[in-house]
Design goal:
Shape: globular
Number of domains: 1
Distance between the termini: 28 Å
Number of strands: 9
InterPro entries: Cyclic_Pdiesterase
Pfam families: 2_5_RNA_ligase2
Helix content: 25-40%
CATH topology: Cyclic Phosphodiesterase, Chain: A
CATH class: Alpha Beta
Organism: Candidatus Doudnabacteria bacterium RIFCSPHIGHO2_01_FULL_50_11
Oligomer: single chain
Strand content: 35-45%
Protein name: 2'-5' RNA ligase
CATH superfamily: Cyclic phosphodiesterase
Number of helices: 4
Amino acid sequence: MQIHLSVIPPPSIRRMAAELAKKYVSKYPHFFVVDNARLFPHITLFWMDINKSRYYQLEKVLAGVLRKQGKIPLFINRHFYSKINKGGWTGLKIRESRRLSFLRSETFRSLKDFSAKSAKLKKTFSPHITLTKFKKHSNAKLATKFSKIPPRYFTVNLVAICIDGPYRQVKKTIKIYKLS
């Protein structure tokens, strides 16, 4: 069983992300769009393969770790496009945050023994909210070219264990934890 541990942005940011994604894909062919219906805006902390038989134990350990964590202030400072594999991605770039990085490393450290495989946390962490993947990289660039987003501060207080849909995008939350 693969889990996707994510931070869930507040409703205002989720709505903004879905509206922007809808605007971006209106003119160009795409693989998916984050729309708050089938795929949900999120900030990925990490993925992990676990033994299904240990899932409920993992939930309890995670609850203990997250109980000690407070709400995290974040800042969207721009949108981005990038070329990865086939096509082009667009998203909202989140300014790096020590508290978010700490949350990521602490949760991983606490859960790595649940991994069905040898789990390693990627050293690089570039927090963002993916909006869509276009079939051509040039379309991602064009879609964002004339779009301006105002910088936006927000606070996150939800972490979720999620299941992925296509392209490792969140399609379902299994368990949501509230940060104090």
